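re: ur question from earlier - yeah i can do the single chain one, its not a big deal. heres the input i used so u can compare w yours
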Amino acid sequence: MTSRVGDVILVLRRAADITQEELANALGITQAALSRYENDLRDPDDDMIGKLGVALGVTPEFLRHQFRMHGAIAADAHMRRQKTAKPTEWKRVEAQLNLLRMHSSYLLERVPLRPQNHVIQVDPGERTPADAASMLRASWRMPIGPVRNLFRWVESAGVIIVEADFGTHRIDGMSQWAGDHAVITLNSAMPTDRKRLTVAHELGHLVLHTAYIDSDVEDQANDFAAEFLMPEHIIRPQLHNLTLGKLEDLKLEWGVSMQAVFERAYRLGKATPEERQKFYRQMNSRGWKVREPNSELIPQETPELAASVGQRLTESGLTEREIQQLIGSRDGGSTPFTPARRALRTV
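and the output i got, formated as tokens:
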């Protein structure tokens, strides 16, 4: 399936967080006319495509591009969010993910990646999420124990990670495939331990739920993330006498939250329901359920793959304008692949 121009316009408008009325005014047309473009009831001519590109920050070629896979509005996006997240919030973040996917696939069709590793596909009906996590760790030849530099491991498989301001604390991250490669977008406001768990959770979706979908996808992604970050055969002996002090130590060792460690113990039968209730009472009484201590002591991780692609294009001799054309962004526009401008230095 390929995208239609109307889908692309809709995604770009939602990602920019502007209304139909606002975009129509910028274009000098009626809202009804814009609605017909977005619903593919009318095909914009070349002049209108040019105006749309200026208003939405992309090239005319990008607007007309026939995106592969699921079109511009992908149906296979996975989102880690709270139940209280408002539809307006997650639709905006979903549009931002779709825009990232579109820019990624548009560029990578022209500048292919050659990743060192690959994201395997596992049928959750045949293998448990924990088995899938173990298989992926083995496939990537990862060291046993805690995962250091998680972002780097995931990006080594061609998965593009991008941090963004979601404008809400209710959404942690989203993921979907962009052609042969995947994209994950993260809420930049989260502490590092929560970002790491979210990346592992979204990686679980990419492994388990690209071709195989059932009603337990969130629990399966959680189980995958727990085993991927905290392999049972390594962490199980540590999950006893779980005082808050010990949980703080385990948090720093494994790079995940105290709550994630305790939930791992509970699901492995190392903590009782009564102990779980006591744990959350203690966390709530200290205000740690919302913001845990020592999150700032976990080494920060920064996505690097998208920026490195832009840097390689610069080093290959392409001009900034040529790179923008490859990305599908207009002059002066910014995407995760846009190489950083070099500042002038005084001697």
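The chain has three domains: 5-73, 129-297, 307-338. not sure if urs matches, ping me
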